[in-house]
Amino acid sequence: MLFCGYMTVIYLPWDIFLKALSEDQEVWFGILFTGWAAKAGAVLHWLVYGFGFYGFWKMKSWMFPWAGVYTLQISVGMLIWTAMDSRGSGMLSGIIVAIPFLALAIALWRSKLFKHNSIEPETTENET
User: Fold this and answer.
1) What is the pLDDT of residues 17-56, one digit of tens each?
2) Quick count: other Cβ atoms within 10 Å of Cβ 89?
3) 10 Å Cβ neighbour count for 106?
4) Interval 49-81: pLDDT, tens
5) Which residues contact 66 (CB under 8 A, 6 or more apart)?
6) CB burial of residue 128 (10 Å; 0-12, 13-18, 19+)
7) Which of 67, 94, 123, 127 has its CB 3.0 to 4.6 Å from that of 82, i.e. a possible disulfide?
8) Distance set, CA 83 to CA 4, 98, 105 (Å)
9) Those residues with Cβ within 8 angstroms of residue 91's Cβ, 6 or more apart along the chain or in another chain
């Protein structure tokens, strides 16, 4: 939740409105975007992190499965980017970088925090 809040309130507004277009970069699914494509990607990231912050803050049931799925996508993206980009360090470092995100994705998937069980309302003596 804190990371989503930071990205929503501090980083992405700066990235979208103040960062120079020539310096802007965004990564989606392990593919690096620059320029206007990066600005568009930053707006999408802003929406994703904004909804993520709200969903974590209010513990919304729709966060399952989306928090885990998005984090898994980050893990795969980190693996692809590190293995394929010329600035990456190859497959081994890609695996090392992807593992913490994969572990977090599994933890979010298995978490019961967002899985609200339907609880039968208790009956009172007047209702029986």
Assistant:
1) 999 999 999 999 989 999 999 999 999 999 999 999 999 9
2) 12
3) 14
4) 999 999 999 999 999 999 999 999 999 999 998
5) 55
6) exposed
7) 94
8) 26, 11, 20
9) 79, 82, 83
Q: Which amino acid is at 52?
A: G
- Return the pLDDT at 118: 41
- The helix-helix angle for 91-110 and 63-84 (nearest 10°) equals 180
Burial class (CB in 10 A: 0-12, 13-18, 19+), 85: middle
Of 104 and 122, the structure prediction assigns the larger pLDDT to: 104
Closest CA to 49 of 30, 65, 70, 68: 70
